[in-house]
Task: inverse folding
């Protein structure tokens, strides 16, 4: 499982404050703790509060890479913010550009830009592409799959290896009127996305979004995660510091024969994800 | 739309393990061997993905074997009572990459020899040959726990490969092997889950996984080789898939297992062909099969089988 640790995000108050006060230590500790817990990548998102998002992105990357060599996932919907990060990042161990829709009303070529940025960033740079287009997030299975197919085709046409492509079928909060059909649609879409290419693109989700505003967040997240693993999910943006979630993940992967069983299977799971 | 280029999806590599320490490294060996490093299955990928060539360890017993057939004893008949001459012969005449010193004589059901005997033999063989050594206990946990730590100490600094440790008996030998600077063999009874567990237990004691070689137990041709093959194959695939607890090189015991088969031993079986050929062929066939599953070190006995396998290895791993 390719785990992208979600905690370095300006939406969290500790990170927001650390960015405002330029307190590197908070960020470096989060990087170390998430790495220890089994993160393959660390997501880096400046949030919405920072006045200068490009500068904040650069500051976060510098702070993290001073003490930690875990590859990063640069998380922004704005190409300029990602570009600012790419100028200074060490992508030797890998990198993810997170994320781009297929297209936007205001920017038809957005995915091309992300793919080109990834190609320039080196052979180990991947991208996350959302099953979303200028009409927004699709509500049904077929449109999700159709967008995923277009994304995959675009990547192939540009000579971008499908193993460097992560498709995110977009998890929406379950506590929204009429949104309870969404988890089922996403699973059905995953069943098809994994046959779009050989080798297939990775499938990832921003898991915590599912339980936004709900009670029992961790329980909701980890239950869906276990089901999704059985539908081909092989990556997730998650709270790797949530031990119960990590144990469910270790068990789900073991039951799906992705990890060889041993009596200590929980204990060694974190180290199994590191690159 | 262009036809996509299909790339191999393996991300992991089998660990490289070096056995033996020369003078510069604090030992007295005149050569060392390195195994592992494969990034693909056998025959898979490009030649660089094949890693190091598999190697042959020829068995030398600490005491005269009592159950060897005439065919197997014949090439060693003048040295069976003297392990250091025996080891020298294996290196000089039969080209052993390393010597596996098997302490069968210490087994309580055999000669029940003591630790001082084992230490003496270890020291003599170390003097007699310059190749690295594998030091292998008798399989009786209690006796091995008494004797093998002393054997380990006697070879301190030589960076031997010592074993075996099992799920229910690993602490004593793991600790002493770590202290004496040896590589360790973890053993499991043809059970991939236990194999992974023993590796984790050794790691828990602070033993670096990069110095572990696994022994999954071996079945000879006709006697369970399918199980051995599929476990070795699964270990290799797990290593290539990035499972660090299964990324070790593997050793198997072909000599002992092949020569237990009645097809290898039985003299009075005219329909089966000449017994002089049958045993070496049985041993070679078993070894070739396991090499293809991804085994890195093969323990062998008969010089003719050794020659066949060396030829095979040199043709496949160029």
Result:
């Amino acid at each position: 499982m390719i785990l992208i640790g979600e905690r370095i995000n300006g939406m969290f108050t500790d990170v927001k404050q650390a960015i405002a006060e330029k307190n590197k230590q908070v960020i470096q500790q989060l990087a170390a703790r998430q790495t220890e817990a089994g993160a393959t990548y660390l997501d880096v998102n400046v949030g919405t509060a920072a006045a200068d998002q490009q500068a904040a992105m650069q500051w976060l990357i510098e702070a993290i890479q001073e003490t930690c060599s875990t590859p990063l996932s640069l998380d922004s919907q704005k190409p300029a913010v990602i570009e600012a990060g790419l100028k200074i990042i060490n992508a030797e161990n890998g990198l993810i550009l997170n994320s781009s829709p297929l297209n936007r009303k205001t920017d038809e070529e957005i995915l091309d830009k992300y793919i080109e940025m990834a190609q320039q960033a080196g052979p180990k740079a991947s991208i996350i592409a959302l099953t979303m287009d200028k009409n927004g997030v699709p509500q049904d299975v077929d449109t999700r799959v159709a967008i995923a197919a277009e994304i995959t085709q675009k990547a192939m046409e540009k000579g971008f290896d499908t193993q460097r492509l992560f498709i995110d079928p977009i998890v929406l909060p379950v506590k929204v009127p009429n949104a309870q059909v969404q988890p089922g649609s996403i699973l059905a879409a995953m069943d098809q996305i994994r046959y779009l290419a050989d080798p297939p693109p990775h499938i990832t989700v921003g898991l915590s979004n599912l339980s936004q505003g709900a009670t029992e967040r961790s329980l909701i997240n980890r239950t869906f995660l276990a089901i999704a693993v059985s539908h081909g999910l092989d990556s997730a943006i998650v709270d790797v510091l949530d031990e119960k979630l990590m144990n469910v993940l270790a068990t789900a992967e073991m039951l799906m024969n992705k990890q060889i069983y041993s009596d200590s299977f929980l204990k060694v799971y974190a180290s199994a994800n590191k690159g | 739309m262009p036809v996509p280029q299909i790339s191999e999806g393996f991300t992991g590599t089998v660990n490289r393990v070096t056995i033996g320490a020369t003078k510069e490294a604090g030992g007295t060996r005149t050569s060392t061997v390195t195994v592992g490093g494969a990034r693909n299955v056998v025959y898979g990928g490009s030649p660089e993905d094949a890693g190091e060539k598999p190697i042959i360890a020829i068995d030398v017993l600490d005491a005269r074997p009592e159950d060897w057939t005439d065919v197997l004893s014949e090439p060693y008949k003048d040295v069976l009572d003297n392990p250091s001459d025996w080891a020298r012969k294996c290196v000089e005449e039969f080209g052993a990459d390393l010597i596996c010193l098997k302490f069968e004589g210490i087994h309580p059901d055999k000669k029940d020899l003591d630790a001082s005997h084992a230490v003496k033999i270890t020291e003599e063989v170390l003097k007699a040959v310059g190749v690295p050594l594998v030091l292998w206990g008798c399989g009786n946990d209690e006796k091995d726990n008494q004797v093998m730590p002393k054997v380990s100490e006697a070879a301190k600094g030589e960076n031997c490969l010592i074993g075996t440790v099992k799920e229910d008996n690993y602490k004593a030998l793991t600790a002493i092997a770590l202290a004496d600077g040896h590589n360790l063999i973890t053993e499991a009874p043809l059970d991939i889950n236990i194999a992974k567990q023993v590796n984790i237990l050794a790691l828990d004691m602070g033993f670096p996984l990069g110095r572990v070689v696994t022994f999954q137990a071996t079945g000879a041709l006709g006697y369970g080789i399918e199980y051995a093959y599929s476990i070795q194959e699964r270990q290799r695939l797990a290593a290539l898939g990035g499972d660090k607890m299964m990324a070790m090189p593997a050793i198997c015991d072909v000599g002992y297992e092949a020569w237990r088969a009645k097809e290898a031993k039985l003299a009075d079986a005219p329909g089966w062909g000449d017994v002089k050929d049958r045993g070496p062929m049985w041993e070679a066939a078993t070894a070739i099969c396991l090499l293809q599953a991804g085994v890195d070190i093969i323990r062998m006995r008969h010089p003719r089988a050794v020659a066949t396998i060396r030829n095979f290895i040199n043709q496949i791993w160029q």
